[in-house]
Each structure stands twice: as structure tokens, then as C-alpha cells.
Design brief:
single chain, 496 residues, mainly alpha, globular
Length: 496
């Protein structure tokens, strides 16, 4: 777990800086400066671009995670793996362009009724899709080289800084909204250029080709993995965007804007897991290659308890301050209160099952992962169709939480049936009891007149009441290790 912890700590730092910037961007600036319709437009452009870009990678982001250990050889330039990846990205971009030209008129008619503003910026999608395709591919390649931090920094931090600069230009009327949309798209595209520069400067950009290395069995594995990675990636992106797309179609851009802003607050719960799971994908693949089931079991057990602890404190902290959140958001965002709750709850449930997705997706049963994701897509569509007309945007969030719970039950059951992997124990009950107790005590506190002070006091007390017993009981060795490292830096603990 050493490399996982080292990479995840660095990645988590970048992620949390990104959270602060994301909060400043989505939680404050966008909703204060732009209309709900304009916010909805920005988010729906990204949703469509991300969805199409995942298809445009032709599955090679998944090939990098699962099969790169078989190509890895610095002396040979990794047997032309990068060249093969870039060719796949170019082919995917051309296919995407062709499909765009074929379906453009249909898409305009589809969007015209409730999302007319989107039609005006349709051509911007092509630019963003192109850069997103190559960012996904190059970030996957760099992660396969056991450097998951750089892509996280570019996407979570650098990109958001550029967007904040663009918002400042718009606020001070240096650019109009049309120019801001262009700036927004450019900000999301530039990180691709930087990751190319980094790979070249680190001499990790070999453009050699070695097609002779692709013997029939390996070529067959690459093709099969790419196919299922397309299905996986497409399913994941549908899962991430289907609620936004369906709300946009059924309720319009304004409701989409409210949902996406409130969704951001709910998804904060799961943000710490991104860095851990990103590097876990690679380490799990390597463990499966060596048939090291003990290492897989260790990764599974430690990731479950660690992410449950982190997710629970994040969820409880969010809900304890929910009224303060709506001191930040404008009154028209109030219908999204329970969106925050259910998105946060779904994130917590997903985190409590740890690296099950990475473990299953990098195993020989990776096809089952695809089936489960397709089941989740169907569940999300059905629950959205049933619940959005009844509960509005809250229905989409509730449907997501229910669907995620079913997905994780399927993954857990399969890993237990095939490998006897069962990561849960009494520690989860202890952590839940500590969390509930800390939350109830925190809610007894009087509401302070200044909401910023209230957030600080309430969050500090909740954190101490939760984290201190978790640390003293040594429930998560990884968390205790990092806590000890911090205490030693602060001079509050001696080295052993």
C-alpha cells in the first residue's frame, strides 16, 4: 500500500485545493454572477463533451490501466504503447467528428425546445471533445507510469484557476458572456497541452512504434480490453451525466443549473476518494498480474475502512452545516437542499465499499464490471423517469443514491462469491456509532449569528469528537500513519 498512500496523499492535497477552488467557482462565483440558465449551459456543455470524449478514446484509457504492465519497458519506449494510444485518440476524434456532422441537425431539434441557448454554442463542443479525448488518454498513460498526481493537479487546480480568471474578466465587463464561454472551453482544453509538455520534458513521450510486439494473444487482449473499456467508460460517463441530461430535457437549463450547483456540494463527500482510487487501479492490476490475492485482500480491506472514515466525516460535516450552505447560495437554489443530502449519501455508500471497482475492473472478470455498470445505467434511467416527474431534481439525486447502493451490493457479492473477499468488520459499526454520536452532540450547539463563524466552530467540534476516538482506537492503520507523520512534523510526537 506504500505507493498508494504516497500518491494518494499528494493527489488528495491537489484534490482539496481543487475543492476550495471548485467551491469558489461553482459554489459562489458562478451562482452569484450568472443566471441559473447560464450555469446550466456551462455544465451541460461539459457533460456532453465528457460523455462523447470517453467514447472517442476507443477504450485505450482502460487498456493503459489493465495491460500497460505487459508493455512496460523503458528501454524499448514501452514497445510503442504511447504511439498506439495516440493513434487510437486520432481515430476516435475523426469518428466523433463524423458522427457530429451526421447527427448535428437532429441534436439541434432535440435541444431547441428547453435548451435553446445550447444550440448557439454547439460548435464549441467539438473543440472541447478533441482536447478531452487526449487528456483522458495521456493522463491514463502517465498514471500507468505510477504518476497519478500531475493529471489531478491540472484538472482539479490549474484548470479551475483559469476559469476563475475568466469569471473575473466577465465580472469586470472585460469580456461578454459569449467570450466567457470561449474562455471556459479554452481553460478546460489547455491542461492537455501541459500534460504533453510534461511527458516530453520527462522523456516519457517516445513515439516509437513496435507493432511486432503485438503478438496475436496480446493483440486479442488489447482489442477485447478496449471494447469493454469503451463500454465501461461510456457507462461511467452516462452514470455521471444522465441525471444532468435528463433534468435538462425534462425541466430545462434553469433546473439543470440549480441541480449542478447543489450536486457539487453533495459530491464533495467523495472527492478524497479520487486520488486513492486512481492509483489503486494500477496497483490492483499489477497484483492481479502476479496473482497476489493477499495483496488484493489488503488493498480491499484497507481502502474500505479508510474511505468509510473519510466519507463519513465529510458527509456529517456537510449535513451539520446544511443551513449555512444556503447562506452562501442564492434563495433560488433552495429546492436543491435534498439533492445535496442524497448525492452526499450516495457518495458515502460508494466510498464505504472501497476499491471494489478497481479490484473487479482489473481482474480477469472485468467483463462482469461492464455488466454491472450497464445495470446501473438502466437503474438510473428508470429511477429518473419515475422520480423526476414526482420529486423534481430531488428525485434524480434519490434515484442516484438507490442505484449506487444496488451496484455496490452486486460488486460486493461477486467478489465474495469468487474470491471470498469480505472487508467489513466490527470497526465499521464502531466508526458509525462514533460519527452519529459526534453529529448529535454537534447539533446541540446553538446557532451562531455569523454563519462563517458557525461553520468553523461546528466543523471543528465535530472533527475533534469524531477523529480523536478514531485515532486513539487505531481503526485505520493508514490514517494513523499519516496522522503520526503530521504530528511529528508539528513536533507533537516523537519518532519511534
Amino acid at each position: 500500500m506504500g505507493i498508494i498512500i504516497n500518491q494518494s496523499v499528494k493527489g488528495t492535497i491537489c484534490t482539496y485545493v481543487g475543492v476550495v477552488l471548485g467551491f469558489l467557482t461553482t459554489g459562489i462565483l458562478l451562482q452569484l454572477i450568472f443566471s441559473t440558465e447560464q450555469v446550466g449551459l456551462l455544465k451541460i456543455i461539459v457533460a456532453y463533451a465528457t460523455l462523447v470524449a470517453q467514447f472517442g478514446t476507443l477504450g485505450f484509457s482502460g487498456v493503459a490501466i489493465r495491460l500497460f504492465p505487459f508493455f512496460k519497458d523503458p528501454k524499448s519506449g514501452h514497445h510503442g504503447f504511447l504511439s498506439m494510444t495516440l493513434l487510437a485518440g486520432l481515430a476516435g476524434s475523426l469518428i466523433t467528428l463524423l458522427l457530429f456532422l451526421i447527427f448535428r441537425n437532429w441534436f439541434i431539434e432535440f435541444s431547441l425546445e428547453k435548451s435553446a441557448l445550447l444550440v448557439d454554442y454547439l460548435n464549441y463542443l467539438l473543440v472541447l471533445i478533441f482536447f478531452q479525448i487526449f487528456f483522458i488518454l495521456l493522463d491514463g498513460y502517465y498514471t500507468a507510469l505510477l504518476n497519478s498526481v500531475h493529471g489531478t493537479f491540472l484538472r482539479e487546480v490549474f484548470q479551475r484557476i483559469l476559469i476563475i480568471i475568466g469569471i473575473g474578466f466577465f465580472y469586470y465587463e472585460l469580456i461578454d458572456f459569449h467570450q466567457f464561454v470561449f474562455f471556459y472551453i479554452a481553460s478546460m482544453s489547455v491542461p492537455t497541452l501541459f500534460i504533453v509538455y510534461t511527458l516530453i520534458s520527462e522523456k516519457q513521450f517516445p513515439l516509437k512504434t513496435d507493432f511486432a510486439f503485438l503478438k496475436k494473444p496480446l493483440l486479442h487482449s488489447v482489442g477485447l480490453m478496449a471494447l469493454f473499456s469503451i463500454l465501461n467508460g461510456f457507462s461511467v460517463l452516462i452514470i455521471q451525466t444522465v441525471d444532468t441530461l435528463m433534468i435538462n430535457k425534462m425541466m430545462g437549463l434553469s433546473a439543470t443549473g440549480i441541480y449542478t450547483v447543489c450536486f457539487f456540494f453533495g459530491i464533495i463527500v467523495s472527492i478524497p476518494s479520487r486520488a486513492i482510487l486512481k492509483i489503486t487501479n494500477i496497483v490492483s492490476a499489477d497484483a492481479w498480474k502476479n496473482n497476489d490475492l493477499n495483496n488484493i485482500r489488503t488493498i480491499y480491506e484497507k481502502s474500505c475502512i479508510t474511505l468509510f472514515i473519510i466519507g463519513l466525516i465529510m458527509f456529517l460535516g456537510l449535513w451539520a452545516n446544511i443551513d449555512n450552505v444556503f447562506h452562501i447560495l442564492r434563495p433560488e437554489y433552495l429546492p436543491g437542499k435534498w439533492v445535496i443530502f442524497f448525492i452526499g449519501l450516495g457518495s458515502l455508500i460508494d466510498m464505504s465499499t472501497g476499491a471494489n471497482s478497481s479490484i473487479l475492473g482489473s481482474s480477469k472478470y472485468y467483463k462482469v464490471q461492464t455488466v454491472f455498470l450497464l445495470v446501473l445505467v438502466v437503474l438510473l434511467v428508470i429511477t429518473n423517469l419515475l422520480l423526476i416527474p414526482v420529486l423534481g431534481i430531488t428525485g434524480a439525486a434519490l434515484g442516484g443514491a438507490v442505484s449506487l447502493t444496488i451496484l455496490n451490493l452486486l460488486r460486493f457479492s461477486f467478489l465474495y462469491y469468487k474470491y471470498g473477499l469480505q472487508p467489513f468488520n466490527l470497526n465499521f459499526v464502531i466508526v458509525a456509532a462514533i460519527g452519529i454520536g459526534a453529529y448529535l452532540i454537534t447539533m446541540l450547539l446553538p446557532v451562531l449569528p455569523n454563519f462563517i463563524l458557525d461553520i468553523f466552530v461546528r466543523s471543528t467540534i465535530l472533527t475533534v469528537l469524531f477523529c480523536l476516538p478514531v485515532y486513539l482506537l487505531k481503526i485505520s492503520p493508514d490514517i494513523n500513519q499519516k496522522a503520526d507523520d503530521v504530528l511529528m512534523v508539528l513536533g507533537m510526537k516523537q519518532k519511534k
